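Record filed below.
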Amino acid sequence: MNSFYCLKMASHIVGYPRMGPKRELKFALESFWDGKSSAEDLEKVATDLRASIWKQMADAGIKYIPSNTFSYYDQVLDTTAMLGAVPDRYSWTGGEINLSTYFSMARGNATVPAMEMTKWFDTNYHFIVPELAPSTKFSYSSHKAINEYKEAKALGVDTVPVLVGPVSYLLLSKAAKGVEKSFSPLSLLSSILPVYKEVIAELKAAGASWIQFDEPTLVKDLESHQLSAFSAAYAELESALSGLNVLVETYFADVPADSYKTLTSLSSVTAYGFDLERGTKTLELVKSGFPAGKYLFAGVVDGRNIWADDLAASLATLQSLEAVVGKDKLVVSTSCSLMHTAVDLVNETKLDDEIKSWLAFAAQKVVEVNALAKALAGQKDEAYFAANAAALASRRSSPRVTNEEVQKAATALKGSDHRRATTVSARLDAQQKKLNLPVLPTTTIGSFPQTVELRRVRREYKAKKISEEEYTN
């Protein structure tokens, strides 16, 4: 029987790494940007990567598989393209946004600068900040979500299309240059919702039964008018969403009590996704009150680290939620998208077996999620759980992690050990004599670009063709 059609347990993945197990997308993008390959070549690499990701999740038994989480740059820029919110300086004239316009917004071109880039919450991932104004016109200009849903369906994989939610999109936006300081991008909510309705209608017509809206700004401390925007947005979308199961996904932190109350009051929403790895207070909110008949997508497998999950602890958390949510309404999930971790341990051929047993990259976390879902359904893989427990115990007791000499030295510390033997002024004098720093020392915030020559020398040193002295000089 085709593994795409095997019995699926209640399991879900928020998102998956895009780069590929051997950084295939990175190399394809660089080749395209350098003019060494065509758009068709780039799209072929992307298509193959998406297919392999969907197949991997389906083969692992994941029930709720995401689509439209792949991106050439980032999901917020993809949403900007979907909405046709292209700043005037890129001279876009309408129609489906092509790669030239898309990458110009992300990277700039010979005549115009790129849009601002900023951190995606507290991760090392970045996104392109939308530039909006009262005059911004929105139109359905990128059919990426529907195209990728159909792409997966043609492979026999029914997916959950993922969109950046309308309120989070606006809260993550900034006012375009020259716009009055009093302007709030959130005031454009009624202008972007018609585009969301078009996207939803296409997904429904194509056969989607679930849709996921990522609304991570719900973990921030929002003001009352911002919370009201969530209520207004999903009330406005309610008729368009009729007939669909709707998941609103949050991640990276606790959802504050007021936000939790607002979110769980949305009548058009079927399911709520929470980061229960970082969201310990959210866990208590769920236990103290969860809307009857709704689904909880419980993010118990950490999407931001490279360590194997404590399966026994996660299973205990899930079992404690069954009585609150209902056994048939509890779905095992990741705490956030797995794009924040490495791709697959199978490529780590130089790691020894002990360290490898402690780790779980994205591919392994998918397996962990499904193992927890099976255990919750009464089909616990005892051998898998036992191996996990042994690996955790090994890591805790290993001298590679816990150095007894360091522990003894730390225990022996006295109060005086926490104070310097010299004064600040004496240290400053010594440092100045040694370093001779100017009044305002400056440095780089990252490494300089690597030249072809530097790469060649490094390659020769690794191959032992030149000595360390030749390499460093």
User: Anything to note?
Assistant: The first helix runs from residue 24 to 33. DSSP finds 19 helices and eleven strands in the chain. Residues 1-6 have pLDDT under 50 and may be disordered.
